[in-house]
Design goal:
Number of domains: 3
Strand order of the largest sheet: 1-2-4-3
Structural class: alpha+beta
Distance between the termini: 11 Å
Number of helices: 9
Order of helices and strands: EEEHEEHHEHHHHHH
Oligomer: single chain
CATH topology of the largest domain: Butyryl-CoA Dehydrogenase, subunit A, domain 3
Largest sheet: 4 strands, mixed
Strand content: 15-25%
CATH architecture of the largest domain: Up-down Bundle
Number of strands: 6
Length: 293
Amino acid sequence: MPFSMTGYGRFKLEDDPNYLITVEIRSVNHRYFDLSVRLPKNYSWLEESITKRIRPLIKRGKIDLYMNIEERPENHSCRLEIDQRLLADYLRESALLRKRFGIPGKLRMEQLLLIPDLFVKKAEVNEEALEQAMGQAVEGAVQQLLSMRKREGETIAADLEARIYRLKQTIGEIEALAGELPNLYREKLTKAVNELLAEVEIDEHRLTMEVLFYIERSSIAEEITRFKSHLEQFLSTLKASGPIGKKLDFISQELLREINTIAAKSSEYSISHYIVEVKSEIENIREQVQNIE
């Protein structure tokens, strides 16, 4: 059963003794696996671990994950630190300004303390406990996402099956009409010859040979057989497990190629009418297939 690439999941971890963690994850169509993780400041080191947890579960899609982490007040412990890089940059630039423009004076401590964001809160993090809690929250959100992707995948699969069965019926109509083409070609050639030669006697053997030659050139039997085979392959792939979107897209392209060949070989209006319907249905199928993982 296919999975849709569109979905949403949200999970709030509330029973952990150290952290309150909220995870939101959403995914949309994409040719490959593309994960974007947004974490609170000072927790970027968790990104690699998050990716390792998600990668085996989702094969394709553009995925955005948002995480909010709050340490429980009773366990909160942090200290103030000076952002030494910011302070060094500030002193360096100040020295350059004084030298370039001849500005007298020196920076005093009280001036340095007014630098915005000079002090940062440095939380004392229990990395092992946080990573464990993060894993539970991420897995909870991903399971919700997968449940939604599965439900949407089932809806898409039902729609695709209905379209494939309609194609089966239509190609059957084309096959039936193709069986009548020899007699139709014979009537057309006979009429054309009669109009051109009036009362001249027609060479039946020569006429038969011309009809056979024309039929061989315009035969669509092989294309119809391959088309029907592709339909069966599409249905069997639709029931397969794992990522199937790319394979279904390839089969859809093959269906379109076969019907284009049929259209090029057969100019009969009765068949052309069905060809338009088939092409339209295949385009709808290809559009739906883009949503499948």
